[in-house]
Every structure is written in C-alpha cells, then in structure tokens.
Amino acid sequence: MTKKLWGGRFDKETDPLVEKFTKSIRFDYKLATYDVLGSILHTAVLAKAGYLTQLEAESLTSELNKIFDEIKVGNFKADDNCEDIHTNIQNILENKLGDVALKLHMARSRNDQVVYATKLFCKMNIGYLQSDIINLISAIDELIVKNEGIIIPGFTHMQHAQPVYLKDYLGTYKKMLLRDIGRLEYISNNIKITMGAGALAGAPISAEEYSRTANEILNGELKEFKESFHVEPTVNSLDAVSDRDFVIEIISALSIIAMHLSRLSEDLIIWSTQEFGFVDIDEAFCTGSSLMPQKKNPDVLELIRGYTGRLNGNLISILTMMKGLPLTYNRDMQLDKEPLFNSFEIISLELKVLSGLVKTLKFNKNKIEESLKDESLYATDLVYYLVDRKVPFKEAHTIIGELVKYSINSGIKIKDMPEQKLKEFSDSFKKEEIIALFDPRKSVESKISIKR
Question: Is 280 helix (H, G, I), strand (E, B) or coil?
Fold first, then answer.
C-alpha cells in the first residue's frame, strides 16, 4: 500500500476493497503532464510567498522538470498501486527529495489541483481536436475539387427531391465542422485557469500573487504554454473547485461532432450500396465477411455511426452525476474523467480515420447520371415553368402533381407524352420547352437565391 496525501486522522488501514473501488490512477494518469505543470507553478508561488527557500524551490522544480521530460518522451510509467496520479507524483518527489517534498502541498488541495490539471488537459486537447477537424475539412475540400461539376439527386425524407451540386452536399458537412471548431473555440476561451482555491475556502496567499507569479513562469521557462494556460485570479474559490460546466460543455460539443460525423457516415454507407452505387469506398477502409466471400463492408463508417451512442451516453452520465451534488467538491466528481477522456479519444480517432477514408472516395458518374433521369426530380422546375406563365403557384402545384401521378400510373414518361396530352393538364405546356427542363444542370443553375 503506497503512501497517501492524507491519513493523519485515521488509525485504521483502508479496506483493500475501498482502495480498489476509489482508485482513479487507471484513467487519471492522463493528467500527469498537467499536474506536473501545476506543481512547477505552485512551487514558484510558495517560494515567492516565503513558504519555500530558493534552494528548496530549485530542488523541487528540477525534479518536477525531470518527471515532465520523462512524460514527454514516453518513459513515465504510472504506479498502479497509487490512489491517483497526484499521489503518484508526490511520492516520486518524496522518494527523491525527502522532507522538502512534504512542503509542496502547502496551500493546495487535490480539489483545486484536480480541476486545474483537468482544465489544462481540456484546453490542450481542444487544440489537438481542432487540428483534426481542419484536416477532415481539407480532405472534403480535396474531394470537392476532384469532383467539380458533378450534380447528384438531392433528398428529403430519403426520397428524390431536386438536383443539387455534389460540392454543395459535401459543403454542408464542411459547414457543420466549421461550426464545431467555433463551438470548441468558444468553450476553450471560456475555461478560466485559476489557482489558490484550496479545498474550497482559498489559501493564505493573495489571488494576485498566485496569478502574477504563475504567469511570470509561463512567460519564461514555460512560455510554450503561455497563451493556453494563462492564470487568472480566483474570484470564487467554492465555484473553482465545484465547477464542471466546462466538462459538460466539452462532452456536449463532442457529442455534436459525433452526430455530424455519423450523418456523413450514414450518407456514405447509403451511397456505397449496390442500390445507389454513387460512391466506392477504398478497400483499405473496409472489411470482409467470414462467411460471404463477396462482401465489402463499410465497417469504419458503421462504427463511427455506432460510437455516437457512446458519446451521448458520456454526456448523460456527467449530467446525471452532477445534477444532485451539493457544494462544493464531492468524490462523485472523480467520475467526470473517464467520459471526458473517452469522448476526446473517440472523436480524435474518428476524425483521423474519416480524413483518410474521404481522400480515397471515388464517385461513379454513370450511376449518378442514371439516377438523374428520374423525372420527379424536376417536378418543382415544372411548377416554376407554369408560374412564369402566370399560373398561380397553388394551381401550378396541383397541375404538376396530377401530371406526375398520371405518368406513374400510365407508365409513360412526361417527356414522351404528346403535346396534346400535356395540354390536357395545362394549355401553357409546350413540349419542347418541357423536355428542356429535364436537365440537371439547368435545374441547379436556375436556383439563383444561393450566393456562390
């Protein structure tokens, strides 16, 4: 049993089952980098406030930097016997420095230590995720350029609606992803990094001294983190240790991203079916069947669609966990980490694999052109044709509806009907003008309300 950050008030050893049940190091080891950064800043604050000598501060900072470097190169291994990563790092310092390390926890509680490290983790990983989204947007842009000019059937209710440009269809997902970037940017900017909240009531060091000293270090030795990790004075220490709004907002934003990626995946799954045949997904991003040798399954896209449930579940779990908590910190809050880390991991991997998949997509122009022969796609254009000849819109809508119904029931295409038959529906019809309307390019170019 390893040394804990607490225990003076207790006579008994913790029950082994309690040890196992309350441990968080199996997942909060991901906070190691940010815990070390916080300890480096806290060391500087303690030294400035006179709680550490210069020599003690230098010894602590030196050992913390060594741990930081080990984490950076992947040589740091968390001790599974420790209660959490914060205890793990404290124990390493105590083994190296002895009593000097015992001074590090002055004016600090794990309550503020955890939230500080979690906020740093979130801000850093939001940045990584934004880069992943930008890469997917670039892949979509490449796909648009490669397939410039292609027109496809547009759908509402999964039924043929009107012809649209493929670039506009794909551009819709680009718009979604750009909103995702903006949403993440807003959340990141709204995460305020503070120090000195203690367990809940603050610490005997001024708020200004915390922020000023910490930012001096961030402007100097840790300048690579200057912009993201700027420390602000704590205004309300109770709120600082009890707030998990930022976790909820992030997981909510990640759930929205998951929903966007799921919708794109669903379109590609449908388009890749034999019934549609609009697009071919590269074999490198598909799997086969253990029984049916002909199968080429879009498993990657199906898993992206499926993982959306996991991300939505992560959001619900955090909202449910937080809904009944009294102020301030409660151990329930330990359970925010797994859903948070899991959501980041899933979305990052989805964005990366989808970027690769999108770059390989090949559109089947022959299949698409065949589907554009469906006359129902041009029904609205026929309505506009009549409106342009002074037929009231509602009347024109009814006329074309009846015309389409007759075409379906009789099995005769509208463009194959004699002009005399067309005039039974409206005297305004001229066959050669009607035939000209069954042109996908003419249809999309007639929609001038869209700024291109």
Answer: strand
The two three-digit tokens of residue 306, written as one number: 């499926």
3-class secondary structure per residue, 394-444: HHHHHHHHHHHHHHHHHCCCHHHCCHHHHHCCCCCCCHHHHHHHCCHHHHH
- For the chain, give every domain's residue range: 16-106, 113-158+173-192+238-366, 373-445
CATH number of 373-445: 1.10.40.30
What's the confidence (pLDDT) of residue 12?
82
Instruction: Taking each helix axis as running N to C, give the angle between helix 379-388 and helix 393-410, from 0 to 180 degrees, rounded to the nearest 10.
Output: 140
Q: What angle do CA 105, 101, 98 make, to 5 degrees?
A: 150
Residue 428 in contact with residue 389, Cβ under 8 Å? yes
DSSP string, 97-166: HTHHHHTTTTT--HHHHHHHHHHHHHHHHHHHHHHHHHHHHHHHHHHHHHTTT-EEEEEETTEEEEEEEH
In CATH, the number for domain 16-106 is: 1.10.275.10
- Element at 193 (helix H, strand E): strand 193-194
Residue 271 has pLDDT above 90, yes or no: yes
* Class for the domain spanning 113-158+173-192+238-366: mainly alpha
Q: Mean pLDDT over residues 316-338, rounded?
A: 97
List the structure tokens of 173.
């997902």
Which residues are tagged catalytic? 157, 289
By C-alpha distance, which of 347, 189, 342, 319 is closest to 260? 347
Q: What pLDDT, in 10s, does the model give residues 169-215?
A: 999 999 999 999 999 999 999 999 999 999 999 999 999 999 999 99
First vs last C-alpha separation in the chain: 67
**For the chain, what is the mean pLDDT?**
96
With cut-offs at 50, 70 and 90, classify the pLDDT of residue 6: low
